[in-house]
Amino acid sequence: MTAKSIIRAEAEQLHAALLAAGASAIEADILLPAGTLLDLYGEDIRARAYVTADPLNGEMMLRPDFTVPVVQAHMSGGADPARYAYMGEVFRRQEHLDGRAREYMQVGYEVFDRDASKADAEVFALFDKLLAGLNLRPETGDIGILMAAVRGLSTTERRKAALLRHIWRPQRFRALLDRFAGRAPISATHSGLLQRLAAGDPLDLVQAAGPLVGLRSAEDIAARAEALLEDAKTPAIAAPEAALLYDLLSLEAPARAALEHLRGIAPMLPAILPAVEAFAARLDALASRGIDVTRLPFAASHGRSTLEYYDGFVFTFQGPAGLPAIASGGRYDALTAVLGAGKSIPAVGGIIRPGLVARLRGAL
Prior knowledge:
alpha+beta, BirA Bifunctional Protein, domain 2, 2 domains, seven-stranded mixed sheet, three-stranded antiparallel sheet, 45% helix
């Protein structure tokens, strides 16, 4: 058997197990309209996807994942509870990762259900069962707790929006938080720019700079300048509040211990309380499915380098060092609202890479 046929056979076994768990089979086009993906991910997706031009349909992408087309298909028919399983190739540009496959098989499971805690536990426990015996290391997190903490900060909406936008870029997020908390000095370049902007009307300065280059209008540039000046006058995030957010970013502990820590800081950061209680309900649901949550690893920052539609529970199953995650997934409630044309339903899902599973089983 060829490597591809071995991987496909593994994928078919995993797919059959997901169907046996109650999922309906679903297909997705390989060539997808780029506009929807760009709207969801921003231009960053271009660095990770293969983009082409179609003379009739405009810009298209080779399928970078299944979740978006599956959500679109489900929401076009309504927002009722459902479970789907799929298998097929995805395509990723990975020039910066030597040896990583540009085209590889995925098998996935997506659950649309209004009982979020039980659905989270269902997906994780099912993957844990399917991957048993491979000696994988589970890792979990919760993007929703961090997002709630940011939304609850006592600062401007503009600063909170900037932090939320960069949650999936940990270094940029940390640099912004350091600046907003007054822990990082303003660079000489930035200080000089602010002084120049404050010296006159921003629109006059733009017009005096000469012909415009690029797509932004003079008004857009002037509005950005006004925003920079306004931000420079904004007080730093209060030290106690900032300290709680730094503490949250660094939280790593077994899940049950992490819950107790979060409950301890919630009275000082009350915006996170609903997300923390959702975390507690998830742990109870996981425990009811036989997962030992006293040992299950949890990190509040886990999943911040994944796809940007996750907004709650996130997980990975890690194999030996040097391999990408064997399986990963998470909750993406907001995505169903974005693609649902006025409808929404809580949703969670995950993917398994059958090529890596076959490799760990010794078949490759």
